[in-house]
Design brief:
single chain, 202 residues, mainly beta, eight-stranded parallel beta sheet, elongated
Length: 202
Amino acid sequence: GTNQVLAPLVINRGTAEVNGVLSAPDIVLTNAAVLTHTAATATNEYRLGLVVSNTLSISSNSAIDATGKGYLPGRTWPNTTTNASVTGQGRGGSYGGLGGRSQVSYIVNPVYGDFRNPNEVGSGGGIGPGGGLVRITADELVLAGAIRANGADGSDGQGSGGGVRIEARSLTGSGQVEARGGHGNSNIRVGGGGGRVAVYYE
């Protein structure tokens, strides 16, 4: 559903969780504020959508962060264990790119979705969950901080990156947009595949 706020919304410090779509004339994240959505379960998945008629502003120490909020370990789109990267083995989750694997014979879950329109959360790996999903429509995006939908790290295969879609008339700032897979650092702790990011601006 859509949560509509009629006045400008300022999130100052702390973490705020929104599921579905949040609509407001202006949204400001400041002073180490974090906006996120609920982590997926075995039966439900969530997303964060923002519709901002004027300006969305994210300060340098604030973030929209859906890291690790995607499918659980051993699950993939559409929230199923079918063709998923198996829990407890060296397989990373896949979404926009294939996850890593610790053995040549291991099969990881196939990629899915549309690079032009990210609309899914990321897949879990052997241990780490995937990244969540953030979709933003704004007249102006001022990004000094970060927008993240990264896969989570684990002790086995890592989760894949999730999805980020941004549509704005104006995009300014030196912040970061990320949908990377969880980090791997050995032949067993393999990395997750990258997620999907699409940015549209004039």
